[in-house]
């Protein structure tokens, strides 16, 4: 019997009078799920909501084109690099406590960013958001893991969580467009404050967790090696886009990050209280879920990245209309997660959902490889979104549930952090790799087709779309590779049978 099931009290242990008995499920756990979902939505929204506001923020604060990327990079560096530390701190200090600290810190950092009067102030606030997001995200997922252990309840809960993880980015684009168009760019940051206040109040009242595991010691060398390696890798990917993959700084960052991560794994095999216990990675189901998540995120970022540019730059959509155009995909993700995966996961093996999900997602992206300058939203983009969204909904929910199923309570935080880390690294790699491929293909197309200067605008537009479709083929490959990983590595039985 798995550790998480043999110790169901991990997510509902009494910390105050009136808390549920240790052997009984928390009667308010579904309201607690609402609180956790709010926090997760806030973190996911912030990955895309600022993208829409960036042009307005650049004008208002006088940012240079070279520096504006730091609004995004500062967040992704801190968030992706510190997730493992955040997950271990949650195990050490207690998940509820770090959850509340993360919420408060994220809200304060958002307020600082919204009030920014200079580029440096905004960059610093975004980095702080990333730091507290790295504390908040693994705490939220590990609270889910230790609160919902019954297979059917777990399916429903993780269906909702997976839907938010997949659909939150598209919702962020819509919300960012609305706030930027009808208020101003600062509200794309201020919007986190009321969400965080509601979540903090709800967490204090509704969430229960042990104070922490005193037998865990913080692995300082592991923090330096692991977090340093992740920061270098994420930074290298982010710099590959503007500098090129052959740039000496990019190469140094990627090689240095890889060396640090190899040293990190070596140290973890010898540390008395490792930051990332290797038993987590040795479990083939968890390793398969981490790989599937990373590869799927590469493909999914291909759609977000290129469709945002295509809808606004080629079809001439406004930011609000662009956000609305992504809503069908959000609906498809929610249906796939809550109405299909959540109902079937207790009865079928996880890969029976993940593999078809990745094939569907690849099929959705395949439609986008046929785009041209005159393609319409209804004929090309909409069907691609619906198919891709359904596929991601089928995949995300079983990934989150299977990766965190059966984990020891004292490892719940760092395991949750690994799921988030694979998602973050996949997103960073996808953005850098696909954008570089698209830019190169666009340049080659324009150079070979621009024979008549009077047709420059048409050739440039066609070249841009050609770059997008060329790069999306690689995203299709990433999705199919994710399906292969799920098929060969994830062999977990239906959750009801394991329970």
Question: How would you portray this structure in words?
Answer:
With 499 residues, the protein is mainly alpha-helical. The protein folds into two domains: 419 residues, MFS general substrate transporter like domains (Growth Hormone, Chain: A, Up-down Bundle), CATH 1.20.1250; 56 residues. The chain is 78% helix and 0% strand. The protein is built from 18 helices and no strands. The longest helix is centred in the last third of the chain and has 38 residues. The N terminus is likely disordered.
List the helices and strands and how they pair.
Elements: H1 3-6, H2 29-61, H3 70-93, H4 95-114, H5 119-147, H6 151-182, H7 187-190, H8 192-206, H9 220-243, H10 248-268, H11 278-282, H12 284-314, H13 319-344, H14 351-368, H15 377-404, H16 412-449, H17 456-489, H18 495-498
Helix pairs in contact: 2-3, 2-5, 2-6, 2-8, 3-4, 3-5, 3-9, 3-16, 4-5, 4-8, 5-16, 6-13, 6-15, 9-10, 9-16, 12-14, 12-15, 12-16, 12-17, 13-15, 14-15, 14-17, 15-16, 16-17
Subcellular location: Cell membrane
Region (Disordered): 1-22
Protein name: MFS transporter
Give a count of the beta strands, DSSP E runs of length 2 or more. 0
The rounded Rg comes to 22 Å
> How far is it from the N-terminal to the C-terminal residue, by CA?
7 Å
Structural category is mainly alpha
N-to-C SSE string, H for helix and E for strand: HHHHHHHHHHHHHHHHHH
Overall outline: globular
CATH topology of the largest domain: Growth Hormone, Chain: A
Q: Classify the oligomer.
A: single chain
- What percent strand? under 5%
Which percent bin holds the helix content? over 70%
Q: Would you state the CATH class of the largest domain?
A: Mainly Alpha
User: Number of helical runs?
Assistant: 18
What would CATH call the homologous superfamily of the largest domain? Answer: MFS general substrate transporter like domains
In the CATH hierarchy, the architecture of the largest domain is Up-down Bundle
The major sheet is characterized as: none
Mean pLDDT: 83
Number of domains: 2
The stretches of 5 or more residues where confidence is low (pLDDT under 50) are 1-23
């Amino acid at each position: 019997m798995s550790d998480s099931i043999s110790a169901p009290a991990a997510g509902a242990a009494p910390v105050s009078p009136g808390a549920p008995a240790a052997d009984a499920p928390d009667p308010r756990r579904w309201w607690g799920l609402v609180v956790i979902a709010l926090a997760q939505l806030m973190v996911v929204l912030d990955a895309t909501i600022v993208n829409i506001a960036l042009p307005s923020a650049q004008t208002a604060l006088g940012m240079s084109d070279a520096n504006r990327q730091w609004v995004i990079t500062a967040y992704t560096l801190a968030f992706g690099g510190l997730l493992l530390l955040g997950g271990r701190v949650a195990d050490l200090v207690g998940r509820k406590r770090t959850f509340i600290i993360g919420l408060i810190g994220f809200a304060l950092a958002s307020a600082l960013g919204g009030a920014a009067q200079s580029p440096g102030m905004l960059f610093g606030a975004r980095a702080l958001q990333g730091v507290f997001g790295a504390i908040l995200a693994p705490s939220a997922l590990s609270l889910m893991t230790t609160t919902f252990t019954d297979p059917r309840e777990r399916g429903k809960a993780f269906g909702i969580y997976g839907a938010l993880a997949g659909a939150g980015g598209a919702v962020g684009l819509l919300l960012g467009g609305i706030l930027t168009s009808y208020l101003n760019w600062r509200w794309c940051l201020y919007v986190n404050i009321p969400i965080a206040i509601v979540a903090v109040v709800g967490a204090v009242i509704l969430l229960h967790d042990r104070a922490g595991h005193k037998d865990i010691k913080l692995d300082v060398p592991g923090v330096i090696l692991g977090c340093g390696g992740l920061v270098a890798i994420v930074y290298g990917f982010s710099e590959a886009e503007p500098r090129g993959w052959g740039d000496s700084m990019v190469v140094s960052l990627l090689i240095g990050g890889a060396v640090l991560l190899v040293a990190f794994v070596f140290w973890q095999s010898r540390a008395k209280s490792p930051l990332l216990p290797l038993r987590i990675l040795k479990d083939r189901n968890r390793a398969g879920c981490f790989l599937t998540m990373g590869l799927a995120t590469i493909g999914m970022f291909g759609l977000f990245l290129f469709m945002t540019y295509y809808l606004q730059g080629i079809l001439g959509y406004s930011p609000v209309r662009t956000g609305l155009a992504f809503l069908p995909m959000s609906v498809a993700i929610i249906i796939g997660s809550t109405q299909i995966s959540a109902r079937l996961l207790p009865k079928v093996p996880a890969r029976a959902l993940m593999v078809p999900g990745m094939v569907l997602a690849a099929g959705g992206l395949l439609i986008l490889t046929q785009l041209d300058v005159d393609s319409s939203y209804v004929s090309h983009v909409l069907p691609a979104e619906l198919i891709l969204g359904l596929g991601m909904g089928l995949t995300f929910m079983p990934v989150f549930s299977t990766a965190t199923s059966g984990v020891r309570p004292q490892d719940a935080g760092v395991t949750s952090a690994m799921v988030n880390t694979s998602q973050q690294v996949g997103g960073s790699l996808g953005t850098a790799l696909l954008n570089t491929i698209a830019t190169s293909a666009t340049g080659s197309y324009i150079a070979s087709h621009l024979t008549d200067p009077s047709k420059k605008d048409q050739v440039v537009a066609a070249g841009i779309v050609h770059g997008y479709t060329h790069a999306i083929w690689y995203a299709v490959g990433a999705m199919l590779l994710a399906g292969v990983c799920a098929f060969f590595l994830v062999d977990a039985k239906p959750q009801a049978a394991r329970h």
